[in-house]
Amino acid sequence: MTRDLIGYGGAWPALTWPGGSKLAVSVVVNFEEGAEQQVLDGDPVSERMGEVISVVPEGIPDPGQAQIFAYGTRAGAWRMADALRQYRVPATVFACGRAAERAAPVLQVFSKDGHETACHGWLWRPHADYDSAEAEAHDLDRATAAITKVTGAAPMGFFCRGAESPWTRDLLAARGFVYTSNGFDDDLPYRDPSGLTVVPYALDANDMKFFHPNGFVRAQDMVDYVTDALDVLEGEAARGLPRLLNIGFHLRIVGRPGRFKAFEQILAELDRRRDRLWLARRIDIAEAFDKACPA
Questions:
Q1: What pLDDT was estimated at residue 196?
Q2: Average pLDDT of 81-110?
Q3: Looking at the DSSP assignment, which residues form a beta bridge with residue 198?
Q4: Whether the Cβ atoms of residue 193 and residue 235 lie closer than 8 Å to each other
Q5: Is residue 58's pLDDT more than 90?
Q6: What is the mean pLDDT of the chain?
Q7: CB within 8 A of 276, min separation 6: which ones?
Q8: Model's pTM, two decimal places?
Q9: In Å, what is the CA distance from 147 to each residue of 113, 142, 178, 229, 255?
Q10: What is the DSSP letter of 5?
Q11: 104-112 and 77-87 helices, crossing angle to 10°
Q12: What is the structure's pLDDT at 1?
């Protein structure tokens, strides 16, 4: 892999988003519950990151950690779906295949509301740890099949935990995917040699930081952070610079009552600024970019 440290080099493309806005905002809901690794499910290890770091020895079933994840689909998802409906904010759901298969009625709610479902791998795991393209292709295919069966539409976008493998993008392009989001290096989409569009994601305006010791503590922390990001990017957009803001959420994180205000208040803020933003699903962002900036 050759790292590109220059990107657009400050010469931003002549890009105006649909509706005349210079700032697009992508809301992502991560749908991972049931696809995290659990010994209970026959996986070799159990996921350690949750409300606390699991202290159950490796290889031993950890029902407590499994229940922390299950909260997301049993309770949190319904609050979040209602809020998206109330504030009329379109979202992209990053759904793992095994999660889609196991919690199909929950994913169907988001799909029926018009939200996009993108592929988040079969399991919530880095694709960088696949030791062959064949093994990765097998999991991509069964994740795609599970999502298609549940939602009625094949996913056009992809994002995996951590990092992609050396083969991921070629595998995606060969299967007709339009974009990947394993890019953390720009405020705009860009083209990959595979032919895919990279719609960058962000780990800063992301509720995972509630689980990090140097991250958010109270719901207002995330609201303030996202509001600051909107202010800065709106200022740049007012000067004619095209921009994209990514905001990431998880069912088991902001679905909890003590953190739900972060989700609700951020959606309310997006609704208040609606006439100055383009609120869009990631597939719509990728397609708008491809149309405005053809390869």
A1: 98
A2: 98
A3: 180, 190
A4: no
A5: no
A6: 96
A7: 21, 23, 234, 237
A8: 0.96
A9: 16, 9, 16, 32, 22
A10: S
A11: 0
A12: 60
